[in-house]
Amino acid sequence: MTRATTPTAELTRPARLAAGARVAVVAPSGPVPEERLEAGLDILRGWGLDPVVAPHVLDRHTEFAYLAGTDADRAADFQAAWCDPDVAAVLCARGGYGAQRMIDLLDWDAIREAGPKVFVGFSDITALHEAFATRVGLATLHGPMVAAADFLKNTRSQEHLRTTLLEPESVRTIASGEAAALVPGKARGVTLGGCVSLLAAELGTPHARAGARGGLLLIEDIGEEAYRLDRILTQLLRSGWLDGVAGVALGSWVDCGPYERVRAVFADRLGALGVPVVEHFGFGHAEGTLTMPFGVRAELDADAGTLTLEEPALR
Questions:
Q1: What's the helix, strand, coil split of the chain in %, to 5?
Q2: Of 177, 219, 239, 275, which residue is least crowded by CB atoms under 10 Å?
Q3: Are the beta carbons of 120 and 148 closer than 8 angstroms?
C-alpha cells in the first residue's frame, strides 16, 4: 500500500535548562512509588534544578490500580504544569498505561500558547510525544523518567539526560557502543518514534501522525513477544505508515522473548524497506537508557552505530 504523506517535519526546539530552572514532575500514566519519586527528585536537585511535584502524582485510581489517579486529575496536573510560566520543563515520573485516556482532556490550544518547554518521558508517554509533534509542533525528549528504577541506579542514564538538558551541544552524536547494522547504510531525516505498540495504537485516532515518510524512526518496546511485534509492524506496514521512512534505529526489547526470534522479525518486516536499520541502540527500557530527541534533523549511520544531530536537541 502506498499512502501519500507529508515528509516528517523538523519541530521547534525548546530552550535548554539552566541551574535553578523549575521543572514539574507529573504522572500521566501509571502509579508512582513514593520512595522512588523522592530518590529521583534528589537527583534533579543535585543537578541544580528546582523540581516541583504535581498534586496528584502519588494518587492511585480507586478502581483501576494501573492508573495514577483519575483521568481528569492526571490531565489537570499536566495542564497546570505546562501552563505555569515559571516551569521550564515537564518531566514524567513513570510510564505504565494511561496517557491515551487523558490526552484528549488536555487543552492543546492553551498548551501551544504557553510556548515551547522541555518534555521528557518514554514508554506509554509515546502518546504524548506524538501529540506534541502533531498538535504543537514541539520537539521532545524520549528519555528516562524521574521515578524509574533504572534511572535511579544507572549513572549512564542519569548523565546522558543531564547533559542533554543542560549541555546539549556536548551530545550531538549519540552512540550506545553496542549498536550493529541490521541493514547497512546512512540516512538523513527528522527523528520520531517511541514505544512501537503505542505508535500502532495511535493509528486512526484524532490528530494521529499521517506517517513516518522521510523520518528516522527510533522504536523500542517491552513485554511484546515476537509474534506480537510481527503483528504491530505488519499493521504499520499495511496502513502505509512506514512508506518512505528514511531509516530505523532499534532500541531495547526487554521481555520480548529470545532476541534471535525478535531479530528475525525485524529482518523480515523492516529489511524489505530498503533503508538502513541499526539494532541494539541503547534507548528504551534497557539498563542505562539513552536520551533520544524527537523532532530534530539528524544522520543515522547504521555501520558506525551513531545518530548525529545537525543541531543540539535543545537551543
A1: 35, 20, 45
A2: 177
A3: no
Q: Which residues are within 8 A (CB) of 178 and not within 5 positions of it... i.e. 6 or more apart?
A: 280, 282, 305
Retrieve residue 193's grid coordinates: 518514534
Closest CA to 151 of 205, 209, 93: 93
For the annotated catalytic residues, the residue numbers are: 123, 220, 285
Among 307, 282, 304, CA closest to 293? 307
Match 524489505 to its residue by C-alpha cell: 272
**What's the CA angle centered on 119, arms 117 and 125, to 5 degrees?**
150
Residues 224-258 pLDDT 10s: 999 999 999 999 999 999 999 999 999 999 999 99
Count of helices and strands (H, E) across the chain: 10, 14
User: Beta-carbon neighbour count of residue 63 at 10 Å?
Assistant: 6
Q: Grid coordinates in use for 63? A: 478502581
